[in-house]
Amino acid sequence: MNRKTQILVSLLSGGLLSVAAAESKPLKVLLITGGCCHDYKAQKDILKKGIEERINAVVDQMHVDDGSTKPALPIYGNADYAAGYDVVIHDECAADISGEEVIKAVLAPHQKGLPGVNLHCAMHSYRSGDFKNKFTATGPTTMWFEYIGLQSTGHGPQKPIEIKFSDKKHPITQGLADWTTVNEELYNNVQVLDTAQVLASGTQEGKDAVVVWTNDYKGTKVFNTTIGHNNATVGDPRYLDLVSRGLLWATGKMDAEGKVAEGYKK
Q1: pTM of the predicted model, to two decimals?
Q2: Secondary structure element (H or E) that encloses residue 33, with its range
Q3: Tens of pLDDT, residues 92-141
Q4: How far apart are CA 136 and CA 117, in angstroms?
Q5: Of 94, 83, 80, 109, which is closest to residue 40 (Cα–Cα)?
Q6: Which of 3, 207, 238, 244 has the fewest beta carbons under 10 Å from its own?
Q7: Per residue in 160-195, is it b (16+ CB within 10 Å) or e — as a string?
Q8: What structural domains does the chain harbor?
Q9: What is the pLDDT of residues 115-126, one digit of tens each?
Q10: Residues 235, 238, 241, CA angle at the centre, nearest 5°?
Q11: Is the CA virtual torsion 190, 193, 196, 199 positive or negative?
C-alpha cells in the first residue's frame, strides 16, 4: 500500500468512525451527588467532563449543596426519578437516609432493570436497622447491600491505596493497569455477596479489601468502586477510565472481550 492509499484509507476510516459516532445515540446518564464529607460541587463537574470526553454520553447532574448525612435529594419518594435515562450514577453520601419506603423508591428504577454505577460513599448510604453486623437473611436492612453486592460499614484513614486488578480478563479491566492512589479511604468488607464479581482489591497499611466489583442485581448490571474520596483521585485519568468503562459495561455497550460498541468510544 503506497502513501497516498494509506492516507485515503485513514481519511475514510476516520470519516466512517465520525459517522458512527454521530448516528449512535449518546448514553443518557444521570449523575446524583450531594451529602456529607466530600467536595461534590467540584467532583460532579470533574466526572461529567471526564466521562463525556471518553465516551459518547450526555451526563445530567442532579446535585444538592447539602453537606449533611441526610441530603435533600429530589429522588426520595419518587420512584420515577430516572425516567428516560440509560444508567444512574449514585455518588451521593446519604448515610442517615434510612426509611424503608425511601430506599425502595431509590432502588425502584434498578429493580425494573435500569443499570447502576455506584461510587465511593454510595456504599455507605441508605443504611437501616442493624447494618453493622453481617446479615444472613434478606430484609429491609439488606436492600441496599443486595443492590451493590457488598456489605461495607466503615473505612480506614486517608492514606494511599495500592490497587491491583485481580480479574484481568473481565471486559471492564481490559487495558487498565494497577496503580497507587493519593490519600484515599479503604472501605471495609463485611461480606461480598455471591452475586458480586470482584475485579480489584486495594491494600492500605497492610489491610486488604475489595475496591472494584460488579453485581448481578436480579438481572440488572451494576458496577461499583469504593475509590473516589478526593478530587485528585476523581480527576485521575485512570479513575475516569475505570468509571467510563464501568458505564459502558453496565449499559451493554461493551462486548465480552472489552471492545466498545461502535460509536460509543471517543
Answers
A1: 0.91
A2: strand 27-35
A3: 999 999 999 999 999 999 999 999 999 999 999 999 888 888 988 788 88
A4: 25
A5: 94
A6: 3
A7: bbebbbeeeebbbbeebeeeebeebbbbbbbebbeb
A8: 11-250 (3.40.50.880)
A9: 999 999 999 999
A10: 95
A11: positive
